[in-house]
Amino acid sequence: MSGGRLMRPTTVESVTGIAPGPHLPALVQDKHFRAPPHTQSAERNSLRDTRQHASCRTVSVPCGMMRDVTGRLMLLDTASLYFRAFFGVPESVRAPDGSPVNAVRGLLDFIDRLVKDHHPDHLVACMDADWRPQWRVELIPSYKAHRVAEERAQGPDEEEVPDTLSPQVPVIETVLDAVGIARVGVAGYEADDVIGTFTARAGGPVDIVTGDRDLYQLVDDARGVRVLYPLKGVGTLQVTDEATLREKYGVDGKGYADLALLRGDPSDGLPGVPGVGEKTAARLLAQFGDLAGILAAVDDPQARLTPTQRGRLDAARPYLAVAPKVVRVADDVPLPDVDTTLPRTPRDPAGVESLAARWGLGGSLERLLATLSS
Predict the structure, then answer these.
(1) Disulfide engineering: 261 pairs with which of 29, 116, 160, 323, CB 3.0-4.6 Å?
(2) Average pLDDT, stretch 312-335?
(3) 273-286 as b/e: b if 16+ CB within 10 A
(4) What are the pLDDT digits (tens) for 251-307?
């Protein structure tokens, strides 16, 4: 997929219409922040740059800490949601200068509906600071390899992204920051890992909003952790709890990661075990409990495995030795000490006003602000 090149950094004012200062978060004040192009074709580099900056440097406090979160916490798999917004909202939705803002407005509408319907006390937009971490690639080189647009000697590889989506990502991030919605990405980790760590440390119920079934592994009825999976926009969400997983996949949250790595996932470049599909994986897990139990059965001549299954699982041992670390989300990411409280008023009212006018965000931003204030 081709796209134009944004050759020079531009000023924060050209993106937001406001000068940098203490009212804007560190990401926006960064001198290397690149504005989305207005008259050129979309710039894939802008997405790469924002992902590199969407790390612990976006907050002004040390990493490795996390404030107590005891109310209902909602975690957004932000990229998953803005991709859905991009494809679900017509590209004819544009800013006054003609730039597409369908992903921006669609995401704001998503968040508005989610807050209205589910009433979180805390809200975090979790970001991909690194969409394809090297530590995962070293274990399974095919991991997301088919989605690489350009390899980088340093920093995250460039991901294939639709040309008209790339320049909207910096706008999304700037709007979220001005509104005051916590936005967290940590260098070397995917948004899934940020979500996994917030979930592990939360002191109350957690709603994870994602179109990625990989995060089903975090579902835990005892802790009140569920996944809100969009079926159509966010007006129709599948509330995924352990009963849902057992009905559809025959496993609970903890078992879903084992099922996923056995089955494989072409969209993530995970080969799985040849000949083991979703139903076979579910049967093996029901019979032997977990991946360790399945591998123990391979070594046990008395275990009820067909010769074909035994041979395929035995041949897949090198893959099965590393796949759990790749498939299971991290729960030990050094999170920043960020205020996750649902904002009632914008962090930067003047910035919000300028952004709304600059990008023609109109009713989408107005509705979200009204919902947050109510």
Answers:
(1) 323
(2) 97
(3) beebebeebbebbe
(4) 999 999 999 999 999 999 999 999 999 999 999 999 999 999 999 999 999 999 999
Question: Which helix (H) or strand (E) covers residue 80, if one does?
Answer: helix 78-88
Contact assessment for residue 229 and residue 213, using Cβ atoms and an 8 Å cutoff: yes
Q: Which position has the token pair 């991901």?
A: 159
Q: Regarding beta strands 122-126 and 73-77, do their DSSP bridges make them parallel or antiparallel, or are they unpaired?
A: parallel
Cα atoms in the 13 Å half-sphere on the side-chain side of 368: 25
- How far apart are the C-alpha atoms of 6 and 34, rounded to whole Å? 8
Q: Whole-angstrom Cα distance, residue 26 to residue 92? A: 32
Q: What is the 3-state secondary structure (H, E, C) of 116-134?
A: HHHCCCEEEEECCCCCCCH
> Longest Cα pair distance anywhere in the chain, in angstroms?
72
CB atoms within 10 A of CB 332: 11
- Kindly indicate the confidence band of residue 17, based on its pLDDT and cuts at 50, 70 and 90: very low
Size of the chain in residues: 374
Residue 150: other Cβ atoms inside 10 A: 11
The amino acid at residue 38 is H
Kindly report the backbone phi and psi dihedral angles of residue 358, in degrees, each rounded to the nearest multiple of 5, phi listed first. Answer: -65, -40
Provide the token pair at 175.
């709007």
User: 18: Cβ–Cβ under 8 A, 6 or more apart, which residues?
Assistant: 12, 24, 348, 350, 351, 354
Count the neighbouring beta carbons within 10 Å of the beta carbon of residue 31.
Answer: 8
Question: How is residue 240 written in tokens?
Answer: 């995924």
Quote the Cα angle for 343-55-205, to 5°.
45
Higher pLDDT, 315 or 17: 315
Distance between CA atoms of 130 and 111, rounded to whole angstroms? 23
Angle at 291 between CA 195 and CA 264, to 5 degrees: 65
Q: Does 219 have pLDDT greater than 90?
A: yes
Distance CA 264, CA 276 (A): 9
Q: Which of 11, 16, 65 is nearest to 184 (CA)?
A: 65
Q: For residue range 132-145, list pLDDT tens digits in order.
A: 999 999 999 999 99
